[in-house]
Amino acid sequence: MKKSLQRQLSIGLGIAIICMGLLAGLAAFFLSLNEAQEYQDASLQQIAALVPPQVWQNAYRYDQRHVDIDPDARIVVEPLCLSNCGKLDTPLQLPPQLSQGFHTVVVKDQDWRVFVRRLGPDKALAVAQSTDLRSDAAFASARLTLLPLLILIPLLVIFARIIVRRSLAPIHALAEAVDQQNSDRPTPLPVEQVPEEIVPFIQSLNRLLERIRQLLAKERRFIADAAHELRTPLTALSLQVQNLQRADSLEESRKRLLPLQDGLERTRHLLDQLLGFARQQSGVSTIEPVDLTAVARQVVEDLYPLAELKKIDFGMDAEKPLRVQGSSAAFYSLLRNAVDNALRYSPDHSEVTVRVRSEENEVLLEVLDSGPGIPPEASERVFDPFYRLPGSAGDGSGLGLSIVRSIAEQMGGQIILQARTDHAGLHFIYRQKAG
Question: Are 91 and 119 in contact (CB under 8 A)?
Answer without folding.
Answer: no
